[in-house]
Design a protein that fits this description.
Layout: H1 9-28, H2 33-51, H3 56-63, H4 71-78, E1 80-84, E2 97-104, E3 107-114, H5 120-125, H6 133-148, E4 153-159, H7 166-170, H8 173-185, E5 191-200, H9 201-205, E6 212-216, E7 220-222, H10 226-234, H11 240-247, H12 251-256, E8 262-264, H13 275-294, H14 298-310
Parallel strand pairs: 3-4, 4-5, 5-6, 5-7, 6-8
Antiparallel strand pairs: 1-2, 2-3
Length: about 325
């Protein structure tokens, strides 16, 4: 059963009431269709009101939902003939990042994404979706391979951040991330990044230097978590809710600031409610974006990416 968020309680209660009436009507052989239709109409209005006006902290909770679809779930639902490739050819294989080759409506595509687990065992295996340097170097190896064979690159962003442990630092975590930023900026193939959950810090940005950044409606994208920001700013992690509102980390805010290019709408209640329907919506947006970028040549793709990031932010002269 899906975990219920606090703001969903009115919706859950109304659904339960509708189910009760349906059971009563069936067991007692009583026509209650009129009452059920009224309640279902009210449910639709309530869902629209709640899910279209969620506060930033509510969106953070949906982005962190334990059942939220992962990169591999979307790969299975959207692409065909996925072949996963492993290893960075330097140290080892980091399972916090998955990548490989697939087909998208008959077109060869390279896919790279953060991968977290849903169970404790899988999260330990995937290091809770926090990559080591070899994960980013694997990603870069696949990007350069895609460039060699002229395949578009699609990245799925879903991480709290790069792993900050001693071993990661010893193997050059910051260098690996910085190398990805430099190399991604100059890739001569279309690059599309999609934020599907949490997009945290440099760990997310290492897959985020793209021609187009798409973002699921209830995902987040930020330099630090709300808890981390609250700890730094106010020395109190319990003020994370206020930090989330101040940081402008939600899709609508990032769209206003032109950090992302497109918001992909989610099914009512979040992507975890209906993975197939959500994947179908994402496929439509991916098709449109790939078509848009297909008309650009190699030099234009690099220039397009440069202009996109150059336009972020404002310069104010005193």
């Amino acid at each position: 059963m899906s975990k219920t968020m606090p703001f969903e309680e009115p919706v859950i209660k109304l659904r339960q009431k509708i189910d009760e009436l349906k059971h009563i009507a069936q067991d007692a052989d009583v026509d209650m269709s009129g009452e059920i239709e009224k309640l279902e109409a009210r449910l639709g209005q309530l869902e629209k009101s709640i899910y279209s006006n969620m506060a930033p902290w509510d969106r953070v909770q949906v982005a962190r939902h334990p059942e939220r679809p992962t990169t591999l779930a979307y790969i299975a639902a959207i692409f065909e003939n996925f072949i996963e490739l492993h290893g960075d050819r330097l140290f080892g294989d980091d399972e916090a990042i998955v990548g490989g080759i697939a087909s998208f409506d008959g077109q060869p595509i390279t896919i790279i994404g953060h991968q977290r687990g849903k169970t404790t065992k899988e999260n330990i295996r995937r290091n809770f979706g926090m990559p080591h340097p070899e994960g980013y170097r694997k990603a870069l190896r696949l990007m350069k391979q895609a460039e060699k064979f002229k395949r578009p690159i699609i990245c799925f962003i879903d991480t709290k951040g790069a792993y900050p442990g001693k071993a990661a630092e010893e193997r050059g975590q910051s260098e690996a991330i910085a190398r990805n930023l430099i190399e991604m900026a100059g890739l001569k193939v279309p690059v599309i990044s999609i934020v599907i959950g949490e997009g945290g810090s440099g760990g997310a940005l290492a897959l985020g230097v793209a021609n187009r950044i798409l973002m699921l409606e209830n995902s987040t994208y930020s330099v630090i978590s709300p808890e981390g920001a609250a700890s730094i700013l106010w020395k109190d992690a319990s003020l994370a809710k206020q930090a989330a509102e101040a940081m402008k980390i939600t899709a609508p805010d990032l769209m206003d600031m032109k950090i992302i290019d497109t918001i992909i709408p989610e099914v009512a209640g979040g992507a975890h409610r209906d993975i197939e329907k959500q994947a179908s919506t994402m496929k439509e947006y991916l098709t449109a974006t790939l078509t848009e970028l297909a008309i650009l040549n190699e030099e234009e793709l690099v220039q397009d990416r440069y202009e996109k990031f150059k336009a972020i932010g404002q310069f104010i002269e005193n």
